[in-house]
Amino acid sequence: MLRYLSAGESHGKCLSAIIEGLPSGLKLDEEFINGELKRRQAGYGRGPRSKGIENDKVEFLSGIRNSFTLGSPLALTIKNKDCSLDKLCAISKPRPGHADLAGALKYNQDDIRNILERASARETAIRTAVGAIAKTFLSHFQVGVVSHVIALGGVDAHTKGLQLEDIIRKAENSELRCADKTAEKLMKEEISKIEHEGDTLGGVFEVIISGVCPGVGSFTHYDRKLDAILAGALMSIQAIKGVEVGLGFEVAKKAGSRVHDEIFYNKKNGFFRKSNNAGGIEGGMSNGEPIIMRCAMKPIPTLKKALESVDIKSKEKFKAQVERSDITAVPAASVVAEAAVAFELARLFLEKFGGDSVGETTRNHKSYIEQIKGF
Description:
CATH class: Alpha Beta
Number of strands: 17
Radius of gyration: 22 Å
């Protein structure tokens, strides 16, 4: 069973994780992982910590030798340059939209600093590193996980008619991870405008997973359904408030004949579909088409234009305390989303195909693909 635990606070010494269940023989490239961390920190509208204070680098502590995993637990860490946790002042003014008040009530803390440090999106740095390792594993099975921003601040991107390769190439060369240059310009203008007003912006991004064979996930139990597992992983990302698979909420507006993907067959391709409204998942299982999911991210709740709140000690009305913040982090969240779904897919691959080494898992996967081809 593949699983991991992370630890660390936003302004603590480091962020750490231990991954258990990785097969042996997986070659890990620190440059690739650090590149994923850099992608997470990029983006127009990010705050000073992402732009220059932190320069995230992964360090492996155990479970690896000469760049190859051993099969034992893999420990990794990312050091925080801004590690001033013990010197930071106490906070008693909860910010609307954050974990501040609910967390203080739950853990009986009179200093909100003890809540926000772990609830902070800074935690997603180590999650991105873990996801990069999962991506490396999935690459052995020609599975790719990519993302791009399709809406931000009320501006929609238009990519209809573009091939996936073109969308991703354009997104990776965009400060907002947006494949539509015209939309990107309008998004930037909206970000600059809202920054001047002391406000923040949310948006929508799309995650596309290619190369997943049919049959990953299961219809047999509620907690084994692929769409439920992936949606749960995406909803666990800070500030994500909605997830769609395929057509998503649009299916409620259409007749069944315009929703369900018809099935075809030929000797060259086997079973296939000419449309992908299901988003690559049917009955809780992958169906062989690209898995397409979209996430709605709320505006970051830390605002320069502070909202009304109540001091938890004095109970007096007050303006919510302002912490250092981004104007928008939608592009960064899309990178974190890639990591989140990559880990869950890696876990499901190991559950289905087994193996204590990458070679064994690869052989099992190859055998299953041959079985499908001969069906």
